[in-house]
Specification:
Number of domains: 3
Largest sheet: 4 strands, antiparallel
CATH superfamily of the largest domain: Intergrase catalytic core
Shape: elongated
CATH architecture of the largest domain: Orthogonal Bundle
Number of helices: 14
CATH class of the largest domain: Mainly Alpha
């Protein structure tokens, strides 16, 4: 027995269940089977309403696995920088696909996502946040592509990352680190701290980027290292990253000495090279840095912490948010505000300033007999 309606039809199968079907885009679709005829008709009404409001999803579309779709998604993102692509690939292979890769897009229920995220966050909260943000981005694209109706990533706060405050070095420690580095790499410490440069910006510097007469450095490119150790130069990602910075006097003298002793005379010659003349590699720099930080008893310091130190010290001298943004190459106000906190050196200056406010004053005894009652 077949019941025809304005939209779709239902028929009773030999099993006693009712099957609902409908035509759309010239193709017959099955809406499944139901225990009661009324349930089948009601479901067809829902599909008809979805079609009219543009919310209908082809049931077969969500049958693609997350692994297949995520691989295609990454492949179709030519806009991604090389290091970003490598990071996404690593996060997918390490944290997302092993647990969820064989699940279909339609099968990724919010409860499944919640359980997956909780499993990672228990021991690796930062990794869990990164993985969740990437998965959420991929799922939003799947919605746009019409493969699923809504994203299953509905875990409140799962993408928020609360990184621990990075350590900073004192001025004395910066001096010690500079001395502990190989002579041809000492300027790296000074530029990272007092000019607040990133590693890639430092290693991408050319002779033509340095104006010794006016004591400035121009940031126009950086050297980026891939996971296999190779490197390439690229322009700053934002307009704020392309900037000219004034160099403190102590760094200017060291910079001039470095150029005379270690840098080729060509305008486009890299400032930092190895004895062979080849560009300094990430491994070489890291090996020297690791030895230097152990030498001064600060194995917790990363090279990037020197940039953090320099920006924090700049904030302590009274630098405005706009000035911090310029020196850091930040286009975000929030990124610059993180450096406006206390430092050990600045705290000592404040303590000494408070002490200076305390001036001895004569103590005038009170004549209690003449004091009115």
């Amino acid at each position: 027995m077949v019941t025809r309606r304005h939209f779709g039809s239902v028929r009773k199968r030999s099993s006693g269940r009712w099957q609902a079907t409908y035509w759309h885009d010239g193709r017959l679709h099955s809406a499944g089977t139901f225990a009661a005829k009324a349930d089948a008709l009601a479901y067809l009404s829902t599909i008809e309403a979805d079609l009219r409001r543009g919310a209908w999803i082809d049931p077969r579309a969500g049958l693609i696995t997350l692994r297949t779709y995520a691989d295609e998604w990454l492949e179709r993102r030519p806009d991604l920088a090389v290091r970003t692509r490598e990071l996404y690939r690593h996060v997918l292979d390490r944290h997302v696909l092993p647990s969820l890769g064989q699940t279909t897009l339609a099968g990724l229920a919010p409860s499944k996502i919640r359980g997956w995220h909780a499993g990672i966050a228990q021991d690796h909260p930062a990794a869990a946040a990164k993985a969740y943000r990437l998965l959420s981005t991929i799922m939003r694209t799947a919605v746009v592509d019409g493969l699923i109706l809504t994203s299953p990533c509905k875990v409140d706060g799962a993408g928020s990352e609360h990184a621990a405050e990075r350590p900073i070095a004192t001025v004395a420690e910066v001096d010690a680190l500079t001395s502990a580095m190989p002579e041809r790499l000492r300027l790296v410490v000074l530029l990272a701290t007092w000019c607040q440069l990133r590693r890639g910006e430092i290693l991408g510097l050319r002779r033509q980027d340095i104006d010794s007469m006016h004591a400035t450095i121009r940031i126009e490119q950086s050297r980026t290292f891939t996971r296999d150790g190779s490197s390439f130069t690229k322009s700053p990602k934002t307009a704020a990253g392309r900037r000219t910075l004034s160099v403190p006097g102590n760094v200017t003298q060291a910079m001039i000495g470095h150029l005379e002793q270690f840098t080729a005379v060509d305008a486009d010659a890299l400032v930092f090279t190895m004895e062979s003349g080849a560009p300094v590699t990430a491994v070489t720099l890291q090996r020297a840095w690791s030895k230097a930080r152990r030498t001064i008893g600060r194995p917790d310091l990363h090279l990037h912490d020197l940039r953090h130190t320099g920006l924090t010290l700049a904030a302590a001298t009274g630098a405005t948010t706009a000035e911090l943004m310029h020196r850091a190459g930040h286009s975000s106000v929030n990124a610059a505000l993180r450096y406006k906190h206390a430092t050990k050196d600045r705290d000592r200056v404040l303590a000494d300033a408070l002490e200076a406010l305390v001036k001895p004053a004569p103590v005038i005894p009170i004549d209690r007999e003449s004091t009115p009652s």
